[in-house]
Fold this protein.
Amino acid sequence: MATAPKKRIAIFGSTGSIGTQALEVIREHPNLFEVEILTAQTNDALLLKQALEFKPNAVVIGDETKYESVKTALAGTDVKVFAGEQSLEEVANFDTYDIMLAAIVGFAGLKPTLKAVQKGKLIALANKETLVVAGDIVMQQALENRAPVIPVDSEHSAIFQCLVGEARNPIEKIILTASGGPFLGKKPNFLVNVKRDHALQHPNWSMGAKISIDSATLMNKGLEMIEAKWMFNLKPEQVEVVVHPQSIIHSMVQFEDGSVKAQMGLPDMKLPIQYALGFPNRLKNEFPRLNFRKYPSLSFEEPDLKTFRNLGLAIEAMKKGGNMPCILNAANEVAVWAFLKNRIGFLDITAVVEKTMEKINFIQTPTLEEYFESDGEARNFAASIMKF
Ligand code: NAD
Ligand code: MG
């Protein structure tokens, strides 16, 4: 029997939490995958290490000041070296890969992902901000270019897995589970004094800095609601959130007969990453297995929207539509980075997002250019009210 050719993977954001876990998955399955492209923003040392191990066709280092050193270190290999933001789109335009793992954090992931969509590539999507900002355009272009978008975000992967075999059955609603983050049960008088290092400690998942803060403020769940709306073509009222602190049920779909399907597993991002890369096959692995005896109770509760106001703001943005999720996302990115630099407090993140949403001009049906403009305006305004 002829063996299938290896899937050639382009990892955008290979030095991050998702990127490094994806390389672990690829390392486990050398007969199925090979690495074609790796990109990183600043961590040249890790990018080099990855390049020497996985021997991609090309690497991109975002920080152009590091181009010469990366180039020199890879002299004598066949790896092509690129630098700068523009190069991300340039390599996304290559014919020589099959799957883009979109694992850049934030708005910066949008342009290269859109390029891969236009090339009709399979997109394994971790970068939720791409759909939050311009989900209408990205999903429409994916349809036109026959680019499958397979989720990597664990909740969306769960929903996607629940939908296998259900193509003829409409969704009544989806229920995204939320761990509640490190401050579940806390009130504003506690949150006002929360510091960076505490907020970075997630109880169940180990993730990059930005998404860890988003998980602590519950903005992450709001971004995921918007991501789900676009990915599964739903109305806002079909997207619900329930807090499930054990993170064993990764999300659920309720069908029109009232039946609910859930996908479960240990909280380990390697599982949804592997599912997206291996789709439609489930690949055998030796990862730890779920033992129900260790989880005698799975619990569920309402999210506390009064305390975690970011979730309410995201729901408002989702319902309003247009460029509002883009504005929310931009303000949140700026505020989260300011919080990570200890420049603003934990609750200030919400204030910055709320004020920016009130200020920036609303556009009901933005073009891609208008999304970029709204992003820029929202960033400038958010930065101006934080006075730096
Ligand atoms: P991370 O901060 O650990 O890694 C981000 C990667 O993007 C790095 O490789 C970095 O070099 C690159 N990068 C950062 N800024 C860039 C820029 N301006 N231009 C180009 N590249 C840039 O982030 P992460 O936790 O791996 O998350 C990546 C994406 O996946 C995010 O959108 C996040 O919401 C999503 N996601 C992450 C997890 C998780 O468990 N970490 C789970 C679900 C979804
Ligand atoms: Mg998630």
The two ends are 63 Å apart (CA to CA).
